[in-house]
Fold this protein.
Amino acid sequence: MEVLRYRPEEEAEPTWESFEVPVHPEWMVLDGLNHIKDQLDGTLSYRWACRMGVCGSCGMMVNGRPVLTCATYLESLLPGPLRIEPLSGFPVIRDLVGDITDFMGKLSSVKPWIVRDTEKPVEDGEYLQTPEELAEYKQYSMCINCMLCYAACPVYQIEPEFIGPAAIALAQRYNMDSRDEGAQERMDVLAQHEGIWGCTLVGECSEVCPKKVDPAGAIQRYKVSASVDFFKSVLMPWGER
Amino acid sequence: MDQVVHDVLLVGGGGAGLRAAIAVAETNPGLSVGVVSKVYPMRSHTVSAEGGAAAVIRPEDSLEAHAYDTISGGDWLCDQDAVEAFVREAPKEMVQLEHWGCPWSRQPDGHVATRPFGGMKIERTWHAADKTGFHMLHALFQTTLRYPPIARYDEWFVTRLLVDDGRCQGVVAIELATGKVQALLAKAVIICSGGGGKVFRFTTNANIKTGDGMALAYRAGVPLKDMEFVQYHPTGLPFTGILITEAARAEGGWLLNKDGYRYLQDYDLGVPEPTPVKRSMELGPRDRLSQAFMGERQAGRTISSQYGDVVHLDVRHLGEAKIDKKIPFVRELCIKYQKIDPVKEMIPVRPVVHYMMGGIQTDLEGATLLPGLFAAGEVACVSINGANRLGSNSLTELLVFGARAGRAAAQFAGSQAAPSSALMAQAEDEERRLYRDFLQNSGGSERVSPLRDEMQDAMEEGVGIYRDEEGLLQAEDKIRELKERFQSVSIDDKSLTFNTELISVLELENLLDLSEVVVSSALARKESRGAHQRTDHPDRDDDNYLAHTMAYRSDEGAPRIEFAPVTITQWPPGERIYGS
């Protein structure tokens, strides 16, 4: 395995380092990294937690593609060598660890919570939501915040201000939830991000998504509703939005 | 050294911690809240919970029925006043989470759907397909973003509690990104950092489940309660230990031995029916199902595989449509991690360490015996789980008791003076320790990973589903040896920037303390109850052990074990009957 190392206290630029890692049929790329850390070099730094593809910690570039390393078999990449790099588009803190502060800020900027004019008291029970209404947004609620879509997004790579696929999908997750009344507020947030119109809908984000969230579809739906909004405001300036 | 001051500080940002943080913010919006977590909150292990969260909602159900299932499931070691509070507040908490956006699965009329679950006589398990923990955690995390008083310290690792004047007034933590050691002071601290399944090798638990909060409290003199009770979930994938949710059986899956026989009928768990029967067979409690596996193995009726003996979980008869609708994650996990499709093939499974019933002793408000220190969630023992937790009670527990601890800590903080200045000296001591022992110390003969491996092997060997004195004493000796060797540990990584080796050596220190407590508690309980089965004391002994173990740290090394009474309100100890 060839791993891109970066130790800011020691070196100005990242450097490649090679490790010999055995291949077992059950091993994922992450198991290879753990082998390095436990047996060969304790200083290698990376994030991981659940090893079952749901916590979203262990995304990295493997042979140039963003993947969850806990869900990618070593065997599928033979004969090697594998090239492991931190997720593309994020400032590197050290080795394979990227800085996701900006991403976290983007997530919260879309107001990812239920917005209502009046909240129903808990004592009055749940909001009713049919299975069909649930199905409307369910797909967008499956995002694990692994950021593979950012690493794959050609717009984000050149324009880091772009709010990006996962944040837009999350906004749509709430917009399309029958319990929510905050779509207009979120529309106002997204409208400040010119980047969204730069999205060329190549769909790389949806292709790399390990949970089939389809952020490209979310972006497309946003563009359509934003255009409708715009035309409404031009054609019916006195009408209700 | 830098210091920051909050009114209430959370250690841990999983389900319990986030619920507690919101409770503080809602109880008193004037309080400042800090959430310290060694990972970004949405990475916390709550994310991996699958099957559901129990709360009474159906008209044919009752709080008494939920309480009885929980108490009998816990082999009468639950504190019944805690269980009563739990079942009473559970429905409200679940509706609250619904209002916060959790995408609960629904009935056609729009009401929340429920499913049966192990050991529950009536259907009361709310679920979001089979990714319930994931959806709960994300809904909670996203909801916390609404509250400006909640500040986060993501990827900060807490190394010590700060105690002065008999009260907990903050923590010392390392910021991973910079290596900065800092005092985070507070009028109240709530520990919500989860369990410590990583004392074992084969576990469903994430790598981050290293019992940090339990070890912090224990070292500060707070007792750990009922730590001998470790839950084995009966159905883990053999190599990875990945959990195949109980929902697979609740939806109709069967457990089969090598002859294709539903062996649970031979273990006093009922008679096989084609469709699930509650509190029977595959819907029996986890302790009994894991013990039945051991019986089959003893009798040579399990299937040997490269990664140990297994039985089969068969869901094929449910059909593809139902599997995809009700347990899609099970299918995804089997295809991805076991290379089999449960629509067409049987799933190989074996028991796997899943949950710690024990934890930091708290009262019903989450308060520990140390003023100013609260705890909730898996890290705590309040105790509603007794000797064996029922599936789908833990997700509800973190809501009910996370909220209770948050409200209590908010009240406590409102009445306290600002943290004292003496704390800074302690914090500077801790910083010196971290530098001296790990960052400036090299040439030690021991490394982290062999010590961790040997600890996990010793625990698997001596403190598994069945235990006896001889095996426990061997484990005790081994853990002592490892603690001794830990004194000579050194790490290669001396960097201040995102030093994960430093974190793993500190986690190992916590795990070693925890494993010692588990072994000592297991030695002290000379009976068999729930998940604690002693082959040398095979019966439950209410005369001597209807009591909680309380493990205190002592200066001599081995923990001091005391016993504390169990609170019984209206359900006198009885026989656990399943399958009737």
Notes: Chain A has two domains: 2-95, 101-235. Chain A touches chain B through 61 residues (CB under 8 Å).
